[in-house]
Amino acid sequence: MPPRTLYKKLVDSHTVAVLDEQHVLLYADLHIMNEYTSPQAFSSLRAARRGVLRPRQQLAVVSHIIPTHPVSVAQRVILDPASALQASNLKRNCREFGIKLFDTNHEQQGIEHIIAPEHGWIRPGMVVLCGDSHTTTYGALGALGFGVGTSEVEHILATQTLVYRLAQDLRIRVDGVLPVGTSVKDLILLIIARIGAQGARGYAVEFAGSTIAALSAEARMTLCNMAVEAGARAALIRPDQTTYDYIREKAQDLGEQDFAQALGDWRQLYSDEGAVFAVEHVFAAQEVAPFVTWGTSPDQAIAVNALIPDPLLAGDAHAAAATAQALQYMGLSAGSAIAGLPINRVFIGSCTNGRIEDLRIAAAIVKGQQVAPAVRAMVVPGSGAVRRQAEQEGLAAIFIAAGFEWRQPGCSMCLAMNDDVLAPGERCASTTNRNFEGRQGRGGRTHLMSPAMAAAAALSGCISDVRTLEKQHV
Ligand SMILES: CC(C)[C@H](C(=O)O)[C@@H](O)C(=O)O
Ligand code: SF4
């Protein structure tokens, strides 16, 4: 057999039938649903008088619409009628078809992409599908994860398979040590800025190199989560000891013997020597600086000490128009510094940066300091488990003492489908993944950055270089 990439191995091991040169029928080990993209699928299923083939390989989470007010989980109520209906529909569907659900008042409630790995349900070698684009997150653990559309959700529920168009292979190598004050979030913002928001379109991306190997399992999730913002159809990292240790800790139901047996399979999950990638990009970790987006697309990002780009210097007329439009929406002028720009809001959370390690990083910066008076800052943990752990570790107390709001988990202001929204014109330092126009509320202005940079912005009241801030406090 010719050398294969990790991606090809995963596809091959889940191919039920080859349909044509471009398409296979792909088997899904796990299918995750949210309240937003599943209702129609269930309606169609009922209309066709079909059932759910493998209910135990399904998982449902109410994540996008739940309010995050700091009332107890049991007291959480969805007031918005349309959202309440979505949640009750999901409940009804899950009850009828016997699917495990993390409902609005569940203690472990949170964002689907945080809940699934933290319970040990994502394992190397799996295919995981979900009606949500950030399903690429699971590549961090060596699983092939990607988002599907509503009509595909119906097909998966009925057959546990998907008609899948094959992607091409792209490798991104990163070597070296990330500089002090930077994190994997800065790395992925830099990569997207360089290759563009369409730079990985149509490709399954494998991240490789010493920088990637040194990342924690959670940091790898941040990386694979955001790869979709470069258009990637999947993101993968070869499983290694870091992966095995993470799963050992999280997968409580996996006994010694099963784990040992699984390890044998997981160790085969790598791109063979000589496997061909259609495209390869190489980066050096030393190039990474704290990054911030200035525009309305995740690739419109610069190092915090750089100047906001000038449309006149853009490559072509199309790029010039896009830059000018983004600057206008963001209320920024070309050529000015991004550092020092006053902000109104800070949001720390989301499936990109709402894990315990993210909260630890932010809390270390915030500790003993105060949120700037004009700023409203919130921390929304990614799940009930993250929230509880942060409370046990004393992180919540640090945030609260500094003046942050300590909220209940959910997607929250990542996409403003609940009442956590920006007012028109408000500027937000956000650890999320998308800065599209209106993403956090109509007329709201989003600057994507790392948890460390968001913490620094909260304290100083403006976009600030966390490296300088850290020095001031030493
Ligand atoms: C609501 C859902 C379909 C959407 C996605 O697919 O990613 C959301 O999670 C997002 O982040 O924009
Ligand atoms: S946290 Fe944001 S990116 Fe993640 S699933 Fe929710 S809305 Fe989508």
From TrEMBL:
Reactions that this protein is recorded to catalyse: (2R,3S)-3-isopropylmalate = (2S)-2-isopropylmalate
Keyword entries, A-Z: 4Fe-4S, Amino-acid biosynthesis, Branched-chain amino acid biosynthesis, Iron, Iron-sulfur, Leucine biosynthesis, Lyase, Metal-binding
Cofactor requirement: [4Fe-4S] cluster
Pfam family, one: Aconitase
EC main group: lyase
Domain Aconitase/3-isopropylmalate dehydratase large subunit alpha/beta/alpha: 9-461
UniProt-listed Enzyme Commission number(s): 4.2.1.33
InterPro entries membership: 3-IsopropMal_deHydase_lsu, Acnase/IPM_dHydase_lsu_aba_1/3, Acoase/IPM_deHydtase_lsu_aba, Aconitase_4Fe-4S_BS, Aconitase_4Fe-4S_dom, IPM_dehydratase_rel_enz, IPMI_cat
SUBUNIT field: Heterodimer of LeuC and LeuD.
Summary of the function given for this chain in its UniProt record: Catalyzes the isomerization between 2-isopropylmalate and 3-isopropylmalate, via the formation of 2-isopropylmaleate.
UniProt name for this protein: 3-isopropylmalate dehydratase
UniProt organism field: Collimonas pratensis
